[in-house]
Amino acid sequence: MLEVNQISVNYGAAPALWDVSLQVGKGELVCVVGPNGAGKTTLINAIAGMHRVRDGSLRFNGSDITQLASHRFCEAGIAIVPEGRRLFTQMTVHDNLELGSFIAPAKARRQETLDYVLTLFPALKVKLQSQAGSLSGGQQQMVAIGRALMARPGLLLLDEPSLGLAPAIVLDMFGAIRKINAEGTSVLLVEQNVAMAMALANRAYVMEEGRIVAQGQASELLSRPEIQKAYLGLDVAI
């Protein structure tokens, strides 16, 4: 489905990603983990069309989308839930959700998808006419994920969905992500909660300083002492 082939991305003259390659297959849930500043957000924004790729290529469903205009990535079937949610806080929850469904195929099935989102996040049913800014952090994250789902994407990109949420809400959020994936949507998850992300994912990539430094089955990576020591803070012998 998604093939990232040796991409490099710059911020101005400063390189942010070097020679990064990864894949997400149809129906897979893949996570990218690593420390702050590793380049995870830059990577996911490049895949969403929000950063221009300097070198390398992006392919999605067999088509080269590297030079596609940014607003065309959603039409191609890619939707992102950005770090920090970025809701329109003065607009209602209902209007925020509807904004996700303005491409023609999604608009034609707007009510069907809205019903699905409200089934996935029942707490939003009584909040549809509330301003998005009045919601709790967990509810706002539900709206952000729901807005992306309203585009009916084949690939959902999630950037730090657990950031700033209470542990109980994080469990609910990861449960919803698992359900979204189980129902057929491929997911690429960027997450600092390494243990939970790898428990959820089929495969994982580890990033450091703009590069992929490890990859493989999530369970196998999680069992490696160097991963446990570097990212889980466990005092293990290496």
Structural account:
The chain contains 10 helices and 10 strands. It is of the alpha/beta class. A hairpin with a 2-residue loop joins strand 9 and strand 10. It has a 6-stranded mixed sheet with strand order 6-7-8-3-9-10, with helices on both faces. A 4-stranded antiparallel sheet has the order 2-1-4-5, covered by helices on one side. The chain has a single domain, classed as 3-Layer(aba) Sandwich (Rossmann fold). The chain starts with a strand and ends in a 7-residue tail after the last helix. Helix content is 35%, strand content 26%. The protein is globular. Helix 3 runs parallel beside helix 6.
Helix content: 25-40%
Low-pLDDT ranges: none
CATH class: Alpha Beta
* Oligomeric nature of the chains: single chain
Q: Strand pairing plus helix content: what structural class?
A: alpha/beta
- Give the spatial strand order of the biggest sheet: 6-7-8-3-9-10
Q: How many structural units, i.e. domains?
A: 1
